[in-house]
Amino acid sequence: LSLFLKSTMWSVLLSCIGLLVALYALCLWIIPAVVQYSGCLALLWHDVIVEKSLDTRLLKAVQDRAIRGNPKSVISVIDHYCRNQEWAMNVGDEKGFILDSVVSELNPQTVLELGTYCGYSAVRIGRLLHSGARLLTLEFNPDYAAVAREVISWVQLVEGASGDWIPRLREHFGIHTFDFIFLDHWKEGYLADIKLLEASPERSSGLSGICAQKSLIRQPVL
Ligand SMILES: C[S@@+](CC[C@H](N)C(=O)[O-])C[C@H]1O[C@@H](n2cnc3c(N)ncnc32)[C@H](O)[C@@H]1O
């Protein structure tokens, strides 16, 4: 009987270990590899499961390690965290360099960003603007907006959906034109929001650039 009990215990233990290894492989490799073929599934996996409260962990890293009032340090803390600890949906360092060069080249006085998340790209853009320039960044997720408010204090953050705000920007903020617009919200909204911007009074005669993060618009810089 004792031999039977021992062998049963061993087989239960081995099954548990096997299950744990399978779960580990599923979460770390199999699901991430499968969901990358569907935008919706990838977002669901990252937003609901992987990135749960990642925004607050990013904020904590900034609070612990960045120097207040020093945008360069905020950017490098977020880059370091995302490279070494957890991936986040910031524009990141590589594409950030492209964004930097577009902003530096255009030297815009008024900028609209759609999709703030934790404020990384807003800080990135904001640090290159000249005094007197204005950057509006739009975010509809109140949790992200609260984190971004902490991360950026010199950028004007608007909490709400792009579709609601675009028609009211002129009336509310008194900005008549945007020199540069950075689209980095959900890609399903790009076309509708570009049309809305075209139809809005603040559509700029002097608009010099629209930069979109994802591949829906095939030419990244128009
Ligand atoms: C890729 S993230 C933005 C990353 C950010 N630009 C950065 O690089 O740090 C996209 C963000 O857009 C927000 N978003 C998506 N659709 C939106 C909409 N229609 N209006 C406002 N915010 C939106 C999401 O909540 C998410 O935080």
TrEMBL record:
E.C. code: 2.1.1.6
GO molecular-function terms, A-Z: catechol O-methyltransferase activity
Keyword annotations of the record: Catecholamine metabolism, Membrane, Methyltransferase, Neurotransmitter degradation, S-adenosyl-L-methionine, Transferase, Transmembrane, Transmembrane helix
Keyword Transferase attributed: yes
InterPro entries to which the protein is assigned, alphabetical: SAM-dependent_MTases_sf, SAM_O-MeTrfase
GO BP terms in the entry: catecholamine catabolic process; developmental process; dopamine metabolic process; methylation
Positions of transmembrane segments: 12-31
Stretches of the chain forming a coiled coil according to its record: none
Family in the record: Belongs to the class I-like SAM-binding methyltransferase superfamily. Cation-dependent O-methyltransferase family.
Protein name: catechol O-methyltransferase
Organism: Pygocentrus nattereri (Red-bellied piranha)
Species lineage: Eukaryota, Metazoa, Chordata, Craniata, Vertebrata
